[in-house]
Design brief:
The protein has helices spanning 3-32, 35-47, 51-64, 71-84, 88-101, 108-122, 131-146, 153-181, 195-209, 216-232, 236-256, 263-278. It has 279 residues and is mainly α. Helix 2 runs antiparallel to helix 3 and helix 11 packs antiparallel against helix 12. The radius of gyration is 29 Å and the shape is elongated.
Length: 279
């Protein structure tokens, strides 16, 4: 056998024996150890990065330790072990439980921060439901309100900016979807809301909620294009009114973004609006 291969087999065998020994030790403590032995082992497991072992032991110990001097530490350590074990939903609930159980506890400040951190980690991509994102925003804001001078405040504010950006992106995707659907699902001459109207409402609400967002031009472009399409497909009785509204929107876009590559679209729309209004 090649020496290097032999060396590799020896190393793997040692690792396997070590893992078996650790597992045997954990099982022995878990099954037969008293509360103190399990708690000490849980702390050692956490320190060694054996987070699942720590979680398994601490889930029982937080009840046993309740009312003792170690109760706060046990509950907070459980939350951190769950967080490090990537079980963010469980971690957020544990940190919330710490906050409600020990509002003035020694770990109250980091626990409040990690409620937001746990929900932040659960926040999905913009196309999906953003309930965890909203939950994280509320948690971070509550943390900042409770601990305005905390050293963790800059991190919380940075996360808030990221989370708001995700909500803005979701609104932009929704507005774009409505615009791309156009009048496909209904007669836009009817009294029912059209997809273009839904696009306008969605984009306007986004600008109202996030007036200084980086996507402001994109939202305004969608509003302008949707208003023009509404005018183009309008009934006779609403035609002039909608062309005038579209024209005003075009001028507003050019005034705010005179150097935009999309200014040519606005100018083209203005020319068409003036022709219709004049005739």
């Amino acid at each position: 056998m090649h020496p290097e291969m032999k060396k590799g087999i020896i190393i793997l065998s040692c690792v396997a024996l070590l893992m078996a020994s650790c597992a045997s030790e954990f099982n022995s403590v878990y099954k037969y150890g008293d509360a103190e032995a399990r708690y000490e082992y849980a702390k050692e497991a956490f320190a060694r990065g054996k987070f699942q072992q720590a979680v398994t032991l601490l889930e029982e110990l937080v009840t046993i330790k309740k009312g003792s001097d170690e109760a706060q530490e046990a509950l907070y350590m459980l939350g951190m072990a769950q967080y490090c074990n990537l079980d963010y939903e469980a971690a957020s609930e544990t940190f919330k439980k710490y906050g409600s159980s020990y509002p003035r506890g020694i770990y109250a400040e980091p626990a409040a921060f990690y409620v937001g951190q746990s929900l932040f980690q659960s926040s999905p991509e913009p196309r999906l439901d953003q309930s965890p994102t909203n939950g994280a925003i509320n948690a971070y804001q509550q943390f900042i309100d409770l601990y305005p001078d905390s050293k963790l405040r800059p991190a919380a504010q940075e996360r808030l900016y990221e989370l708001h950006g995700k909500l803005i992106q979701k609104e932009l995707l929704s507005a774009e979807l409505y615009y791309n659907l156009g009048g496909y699902f209904g007669n836009i001459n009817s009294n029912e809301e059209s997809n273009y109207t839904s696009c306008i409402v969605t984009a306007q609400n986004a600008l109202k909620n996030y007036p200084y967002c980086d996507q402001r031009e994109e939202f305004m472009l969608l509003i302008m294009k949707s208003k023009f399409q509404l005018a183009e497909n309008s009934s006779e009785e609403k035609r002039l009114e909608r062309y005038r509204d579209a024209e005003d929107e075009c001028y507003g876009f050019i005034n705010e973004f005179p150097e935009s590559k999309n200014a040519e679209i606005a100018e083209k729309y203005i020319a068409k609006c003036k022709k219709v209004i004049k005739d």
